[in-house]
Specification:
The complex is a heterodimer.
Chain A lengths: L2 H7 L2 H8 L15 E8 L4 E10 L6 E10 L2 H14 L4 H15 L9 H7 L12 H20 L8
Antiparallel strand pairs in A: 1-2, 2-3
Chain B lengths: L10 H4 L9 E2 L3 E2 L1 E2 L10 H14 L9 H20 L7 E4 L2 H16 L17 E5 L8 H10 L2 E5 L12 H4 L4 E7 L11 H11 L2 E5 L11 H4 L3 E5 L10 E5 L1 H6 L10 E4 L4 E3 L13 H17 L1 H20 L4 E3 L11 E6 L4 H10 L2 E2 L1 E3 L4 H6 L5 E5 L6 H12 L1 H4 L13
Parallel strand pairs in B: 3-15, 5-6, 5-7, 7-8, 8-9
Antiparallel strand pairs in B: 1-2, 4-10, 9-10, 11-12, 13-14, 14-17, 16-17
The chains are: A alpha+beta, B alpha/beta.
């Protein structure tokens, strides 16, 4: 790896989120109505994330009304969950699906970026993960929290099945 | 210069024997390979041995009456002799396995089969009863832990373990109460692949003998670095792996005292491990063939034999002195770095040149990425030893591990790169990362 690529990997906004993560803290008591909690581990490096969502299904479209997480891991995995928190909290499920798919697409561009201003606006800070796509070994770090989110939404009852 | 004058061991000139070490990484940087504890690089003679086998002698061994079959069989059995001589064993006590993990599983499943009544009267000594105890240590690689967990689950045996002290040394004092009349197996590594601490084998062997328990030694980490004489160590069974001792992947060895291998039931069954086969049953070949069912990894075994000879030619006492010299250099290099903490003994005595560190405030994965940008290849993570990491309250460490070709320059490059890690992540008070991205 070159030094330039490393600077691209560790964008300042990623380091900032890793150092002061959003939405991280004590999880509420497990099992409350409308909540789902998922624990995901990256077995190769031991990174862990436990993420809990609460979904309000009283309206026309379900909305994520609470999201907390705990975890330990590298700056990439921790920053990713922190940004996930900002993107997903308060969003309805179709919007969650769109942002999650866009984030995965970004990581799949091998560092080239989406070249789509609307998509970049949607991701906000998370566009800083563009450079991570150049490091196949680190993509799973960036996705750890998003895998937990998918699972937690199913466990909350807001989703019929795992997608 | 890059040689180690204090030991007279010319690691720098040895590097020419290892073609991979001459390549560059990233933007043309010199490769600093400090991941030999995971897998070592191969000297040209080992690569040539595999190529030569396939080019000139390839044939099925122990069957066929043609010339090639004889040559292949000779090469295969010569390799067994080379490996046996290297570790102080007789050739008939060496069973080829795909690696150390396979060797340990072989032993665990052989015990399982004996417990199920296989192997006849001779194998009854291995049979476990509910409540029997298997003893391991908290410092084990998962390869010497999970097979025993599984064996315990299959048989109703109970798994117990020896702890380490704060510096990573095994708590030998615990053997007195942990080895009991119920203890049937004592399985332990000769050196930790995380802390580098070398295990004093004698107290384990003494404690096990007192109660008639089997000793199983995982010598994967020590065999490439120290003279190892299995007969002198007095263990019952031991495993080693080719790829950590400059040999190929896919090959390793299980050592067993002859009378034990004779009594132990086989695990993999099929061709080549039998004498007489009828539609109802089969009788087994004598060891080691009894444990070598199916076509073996012949070219890899030949390569492992050549690796053993290569190390022997270097002189294992000299290799050990070089390793010790590097241990001191590595420990000295990290001792002065702020925010860097060694997980393992800080004293170079009875220790291998395997040094794992925690960088405060930076996850090991991120440390490894910064080191990689400097051309320094290390291992990050839990190194297949999660319980030991949990023991020290860390999820992951950054590990530098040396081999015969590791130089003082390599250690210096590692120390330089490591010194820059906290600065890169803005954690160093004296200076911070510049620029806003």
């Amino acid at each position: 790896m070159t030094v330039d690529a490393m600077e691209q990997l560790y964008q300042q906004v990623i380091l900032d989120h890793a150092r002061r993560p959003h939405g991280r803290g004590d999880l509420p008591v497990e099992g409350a109505e409308g909540t789902g909690r998922s624990h995901q581990v990256n077995p190769t490096c031991g990174d862990e994330v436990t993420l809990e969502v609460r979904v309000d299904r009283s309206g026309a479209t379900p909305v994520v009304t609470a999201l907390r997480w705990e975890g330990q891991g590298c700056s990439i995995s921790q920053a990713s969950v922190s940004m996930l928190h900002d993107l997903v909290l308060g969003a309805d499920l179709p919007a969650v699906d769109t942002v999650a798919a866009t984030f995965r697409d970004l990581l799949g561009t091998r560092g080239a970026g989406l070249e789509d201003e609307d998509a970049e606006d949607l991701l906000g800070d998370a566009t800083a993960f563009t450079g991570v796509g150049k490091f196949p070994a680190r993509i799973k770090c960036a996705l750890l929290g998003w895998v937990a989110l998918t699972d937690a939404l199913v466990l909350s009852g807001a989703r019929e099945e795992r997608s | 210069m890059t040689s180690a004058p204090s030991t007279g061991f010319a690691a720098a000139s040895l590097r020419a024997d290892f073609p991979l070490l001459s390549r560059t990484v990233g933007d043309g940087r010199r490769l600093v390979y400090l991941d030999s504890g995971a897998t070592a690089q191969k000297p040209q003679v080992v690569i040539d041995a595999e190529v030569d086998f396939y080019t000139r002698h390839n044939a099925a061994v122990h069957r066929g009456a043609h010339q090639l079959a004889e040559e292949a069989t000779d090469a295969f059995e010569r390799a067994r002799e080379q490996v046996a001589t290297f570790v102080g064993a007789d050739p008939g006590e060496i069973v080829w396995t795909p690696g150390a993990t396979a060797g340990l599983n072989l032993v665990a499943y052989a015990i399982s089969n004996a417990t199920a009544g296989r192997g006849g009267e001779a194998a009854r000594r291995f049979a476990l009863a509910s409540g029997d105890e298997l003893l391991v240590t908290v410092a084990e690689h998962h390869a010497n832990l999970v097979p025993w967990q599984e064996l315990a689950a299959r048989t109703g045996a109970v798994l117990r373990w020896v702890d380490t002290d704060e510096q990573g040394r095994l708590r030998i004092d615990q053997l007195d109460h942990l080895v009991t009349s119920r203890t049937r197996v004592v399985a332990f590594s000769h050196a930790s692949n995380v802390t580098g601490a070398i295990t004093p084998v004698q107290p384990f062997v003494d404690a096990a003998r007192r109660v008639g328990a089997l000793t199983v030694l995982d010598a994967s980490q020590t065999v490439p670095h120290l003279p190892v004489d299995l007969h002198a160590l007095g263990v019952d069974l031991a495993v080693l792996t080719g790829h950590k001792m400059l040999g190929p992947t896919g090959v390793g060895a299980l050592y067993g005292r002859r009378e034990l291998l004779e009594a132990m039931p086989p695990v993999l069954t099929g061709g080549s491990m039998v004498e007489v086969v009828t539609m109802e049953a089969a009788t087994y070949a004598p060891p080691p063939q009894k444990f070598e069912a199916g076509t073996q990894m012949v070219a890899q075994a030949v390569g492992m034999g050549v690796a053993a000879e290569y190390l022997t030619a270097l002189g294992m006492p000299e290799v050990a002195a070089h390793d010790h010299h590097l241990t001191r250099l590595l420990l000295d290099a990290v001792a002065d770095l702020p925010g860097v903490r060694v997980i393992g003994p800080r004293d170079a005595a009875d220790r291998l040149a395997i040094v794992s560190v925690v960088v405060d405030g930076v996850h090991a994965h991120d440390v490894g990425q910064v080191l990689d940008a400097a051309g320094v290849a290390v291992r990050v993570g839990h190194h297949c030893a999660q319980p030991l990491h949990r023991r020290y309250g860390v999820a992951a460490t950054t590990r530098a591990s040396a081999s015969v070709y590791t130089t003082e320059d390599d250690v210096a490059a590692f120390a330089d790169a490591l010194a820059g890690v906290r600065r890169f992540f803005g954690l160093d008070d004296s200076s911070s990362r510049t620029g806003d991205r």
